[in-house]
Fold this protein.
Amino acid sequence: MKNLCKACPRRCNSKRTATENDGGFCKMPLFPVVARASLHFGEEPYISGTCGSGTIFFSGCSLKCVYCQNEPISHNGFGKAITPYRLAEIFAELENKGAHNINLVNPTHFIYSIKEALKIYKPKIPLVYNSSGYDLPEVIDEDIFDIYLMDLKYIDRDKSEKYSCAKDYFDFAEKSIISAYKKVGKAQFDENMIMKRGLIVRHLVLPKATNQAKDIVDWFKENVPDAYFSLMAQYTPMPKCVKFPEINRRITQREYDKVVSYVIEKDIENVYIQSLDSATPNYIPDFNLSGV
């Protein structure tokens, strides 16, 4: 089995087999590499709920964010190689534990194996596509997922190149998020206010980037106004940030308040605002191969 990979916007055309990757940016094989699969309570309340989100953390990434909190798995490739059959078993195991949904974290480069796993077992609970936003619209357009939980990290091309190695980040994130919005429509919830279908757009506020955050609020209001907006304050500088002094600190209360005030001013109706005290390493999962 061999695949010339075009799974993400980089379209590396790398040779990916079930167990190897020859020259691709993400360095991941075709079959999944997973670092953790468990009930997770750290997502937005309408995703985690009271029973937890059945979260599967995939290794590798199509970005190289210098501030990535999941660096051991996203950059360094820590995880256990499994088959699509085992992935299908994990779907069922998490569902049987009472998960509100199956939450696929960083699924972009494993879309082939995810589709193969769903042929073996399709959960009866919603499937969440939890991505960086750096996706191909044609992948988003496929009729697979119920909920899209997507980052909108940048509009500024210089910042996306400098901090994530992707100058074209916004070009693809914009199209992919709009595709997701058209796909799922207005959010739907169950009787306990757990999302069954919908789009959540996340933005992590970076230091010295309040103007960019405001631009993203404007974009959201203009393009996907009925989606849900999650404003995140948990930015925590990682070791690589020492090379970028302007972001080698947490955001200040003043910076965050400016963005929160702008969200209120723009009358964003469906919004989740994270507390500034979330800027702590305690939010980083323990990648210990649990459930894999």
Q: What stands out?
A: DSSP finds nine helices and 13 strands in the chain. The chain has a mean pLDDT of 95. The longest helix spans residues 169-184. The radius of gyration is 18 Å.
